Amino acid sequence: LLLSALGAPALGDPGPLEDVVIDRYYIPKICLREAQMGDFIRYHYNGTFKDGKKFDSSYDRGATVAGVVGVGRLITGMDRGLQGMCVNERRHLIVPPHLGYGSIGVAGLIPPDATLYFDVVMLDIWNKNDKLQITTLSKPERCNRTVENSDFVRYHYNGTLLDGTPFDSSYSKGSTYDTYVGTGWLIKGMDQGLLGMCAGEKRSIIIPPFLAYGEKGYGTVIPPQASLVFSVLLVDFHNPKDGVFLEHLEVPESCKRRAVTGDFVRYHYNGTLMDGTLFDSSYSRNQTYNTYIGKGYIIPGMDQGLQGVCVGEHRRVVIPPHLAYGENGAGDKIPGSAVLVFDVHVIDFHNPADPVEIETVSRPEGCNVTTRNRDFVRYHYNCSLLDGTRLFSSHDYKKPQEVTLGANKVIEGLNSGLLDMCAGERRVLIVPPHLGHGESGARGVPGSAVLRFEVELISMEEGVPEGYLFIWHGDPPANLYEQMDLNKDGGIPAEEFSTFIKTQVVEGKGRLMPSSDPEKVIADMFRNQDRNQDGKITPDELKLKSDEDQEKIHEEL
Predict the structure, then answer these.
(1) Longest dimension (CA), the chain
(2) What angle (nearest 5°) sits at the alpha carbon of residue 448, between those of residues 442 and 450?
(3) Rounded Cα–Cα distance for residues 436 and 413 (Å)
(4) Residue 123 · residue 89 · CB < 8 Å
(5) Which residue of 250, 268, 293, 367 is surrounded by the most CB atoms within 10 Å?
(6) Buried b vs exposed e over 203-225: b needs ≥16 C-beta within 10 Å?
(7) Among the listed residues 477, 308, 436, 452, the one whose alpha carbon sits nearest the alpha carbon of residue 389
């Protein structure tokens, strides 16, 4: 490097130059490639004489110079001075006359025997033998599938020239670039560069001009014969032939039944795009999503993806856009043509035709008497959801639950599950919501929830027919009023009535409706007979229920 030839003070005249003088006054820290003989290059320059007078400039023309270096298409001095340059390198070149335009010069522009001074910046280097340069910047740990020809991709990108000049960016537009791969909708280099990518992968793709926009360039932003650099983030991709992809994350060991079309399913979910962006979650609302499957109430992909689930299963459902929200997307959170990923936890499901499911855990030997409707029973129970969430327990109150079966005092499914039980028997009952608390639920019970009961029958008392508070074991006394009027004063007060009924029960002649409060039952009986509510029953007021029923039938006839 003969720096004195660039105009620095020197002792004496060094004489005419024998070769081009090169001053590499800016060398980039990273130089991936140097211009070699036969390479195609693109550069800017200013050309001056020794006195600084400009004779030519690519900047003034508003266009870079493009050509092949080292094959005689440039003046010899420039051919030599450009070799070995890196992209973005800057050089001062001094070209002696015999390596420039010699003793002839260029008429009206460059005089004979002129030494030429060039200030050059290298912008692009490529070769016809170049291939696509792909560098993987980051890649997800999980990659079940990679891009193939005919896939539809959604990706973000920053596009620059080789010297770093930006020409386009999807980020600035606020949306991904969406297109098919391998169908000619992209430049060849991008078609090739996207192949094999995973969703979420980042790549740097360097595309030579003959795989990009070639000799024509593109508008004012991409010059002719420009190499392009794309920094690409693949957001998602799918194929129009794709179906739903299922990943069984956790399946319970015990799965007695799987959901089918027509079942009503309650499930929690997180919904994300393929890059992990959350667009919806049932957990954030603290409420399950409840729907029928296979009936078109939800997007087709989810209708398919929930088929065959078990209660308690965790499943990942990946849905291509043509089975989700299509090209239009949904709202401002699901872009058009987006692949959706649902992580689903199935809480429970049932069918509207389901009966109560009864499993006998234990049953005493020699059980001859079982419960029927109208019987009064005492039982312990634990109630939970199918996912194990505990709801209620009689053990919390330290005493059994008491109820008359068939009196609409408990949900229908529990009533059914308590029938035909022996004292001491234990059962597990699965009660669907239409036999439980229905779509609305109850305090502490979610709507449309399937309930699980663990029940143990402690004791039972034989009941009486509906509408009766007391029944005779045989025929009632012919002179009932006289027997009931203990002091024979022509009126029966509450005390006499109560004493008489209790005596009939003790002597086994009749029985009261089972209850935890017999006194209340007797008081209700007296109130029913004391028609005028004067505190005593007269002969005209006392009537058996069977006689009252007959009178009602007669009146209706």
Answers:
(1) 159
(2) 95
(3) 6
(4) no
(5) 293
(6) bebbbbbbbbbeeebbeeebbeb
(7) 452
Residues with a catalytic annotation lie at 45, 55-56, 75, 101, 118
Residue type, 11: L
pLDDT of residue 13: 44
CA distance 41 to 18: 26
Which residues lie below 8 Å from residue 101, measured CB to CB, with a gap of 6+? 75, 110, 112, 114, 116
What pLDDT, in 10s, does the model give residues 170-228?
999 999 999 999 999 999 999 999 999 999 999 999 999 999 999 999 999 999 999 99
Q: pLDDT class for 335, splitting at 50, 70, 90? A: very high
Residues 6+ apart with CB under 8 A from 532: 541
Count of CB atoms within 10 A of residue 363's CB? 14
- Bridge partner residues of 273 (DSSP): 340
CB 237 within 8 A of CB 176: no
Strand partners, 357: 430
Tens-digit pLDDT profile for residues 266-321:
999 999 999 889 999 999 999 999 999 999 999 999 999 999 999 999 999 999 99
The H or E element that residue 303 is part of is helix 300-305
Distance CA 521, CA 505 (A): 13
pLDDT attached to residue 2: 29
Is the overall model pTM greater than 0.85, yes or no?
no
CA 489 to chain centre: 82
Q: Locate 368 and state its tokens.
A: 């001859």
Nearest Cα neighbor of 95 from 69, 116, 121 is 116
Give the number of other Cβ atoms within 10 Å of residue 22's Cβ. Answer: 20
* List of domains in the chain: 21-126 (3.10.50.40), 133-238 (3.10.50.40), 245-347 (3.10.50.40), 357-461 (3.10.50.40), 470-556 (1.10.238.10)
Residues in the chain: 557
